Task: inverse folding
């Protein structure tokens, strides 16, 4: 049984938005990481992850998201999330992501706040 | 009013990648049939997923199976779903696992599965014995809003 995550990228003037669709597990997390690292290697310093079409994230997927945040922080950039379900939002808080990445209710506010 | 057993489901699943999604979908279907809120459905799905991942990654069982039982009951006050996730593996020490638990809100890459289960469910009870397997029993309540 597979549950493939799809990731789409939209480049902005200042940064990029990653749109995820599906289950963020170990494989999905790695897919996000690959896309994020490509962007970071290309000089992107601001990343917004829009999880509007992701309803489930497991603890392994979250551990990979933490690695992405750490890598971006090492490069002096920032990562933010938007459009989380209430349960994913609560999960991110307990897992510590909320301390190192901003979380916004919607994309419009996030883009404005991040200056993208 | 006496609670009645409205719905019951038992599943035996192989320990293969992403099988936790099948378990999560099954409990979500049962919960939706019982009229539970989408947020409670999501919480149960996340908890079942973490319990299945724990079984798959840490149980070390020989039969490579996860045994699940879902029981939905309701009465005039509302409804509840009991979930049992069982493996026939080596067992573990829950106290020792809790002692290794990171502080909530601090970034930590692994070791959050049980913590997330307890976060998402109203009651969690772990029965485990050395080489005798592990059962995580968890409960979600939903009060009736009339």
Result:
């Amino acid at each position: 049984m597979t549950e493939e995550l799809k990731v789409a990228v939209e480049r902005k003037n200042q940064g990029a938005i990653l749109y995820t669709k599906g289950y963020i597990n170990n494989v999905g997390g790695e897919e996000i990481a690959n896309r994020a690292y490509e962007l970071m290697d290309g000089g992107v310093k601001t990343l917004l992850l829009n999880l509007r079409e992701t309803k489930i994230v497991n603890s392994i997927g979250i551990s990979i998201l933490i690695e992405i945040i750490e890598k971006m922080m090492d490069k002096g950039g920032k990562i933010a999330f938007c459009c989380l379900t209430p349960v994913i939002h609560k999960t991110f808080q307990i897992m510590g992501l909320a301390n190192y990445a901003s979380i916004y209710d919607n994309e419009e506010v996030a883009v404005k706040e991040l200056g993208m | 009013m006496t609670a009645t057993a409205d719905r019951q489901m038992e599943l035996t699943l192989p320990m293969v990648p992403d099988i936790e999604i099948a378990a999560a979908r099954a409990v979500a279907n049962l919960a939706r049939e019982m009229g539970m809120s989408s947020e409670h459905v999501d919480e149960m799905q996340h908890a079942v997923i973490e319990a299945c991942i724990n079984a798959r990654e840490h149980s070390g069982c020989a039969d490579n199976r996860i045994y699940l039982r879902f029981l939905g009951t309701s009465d005039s006050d509302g409804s509840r779903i009991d979930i049992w996730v069982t493996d026939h593996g080596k067992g573990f020490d829950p106290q020792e696992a809790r002692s290794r638990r990171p502080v909530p809100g601090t970034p930590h890459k692994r070791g959050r599965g049980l913590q997330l289960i307890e976060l998402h469910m109203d009651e969690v009870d772990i029965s485990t014995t050395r080489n005798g397997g592990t059962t995580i029993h968890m409960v979600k309540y939903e009060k009736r809003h009339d």
Summary: Chain A has five helices and five strands. Residues 23 and 56 of chain A are 5 Å apart (CA to CA).
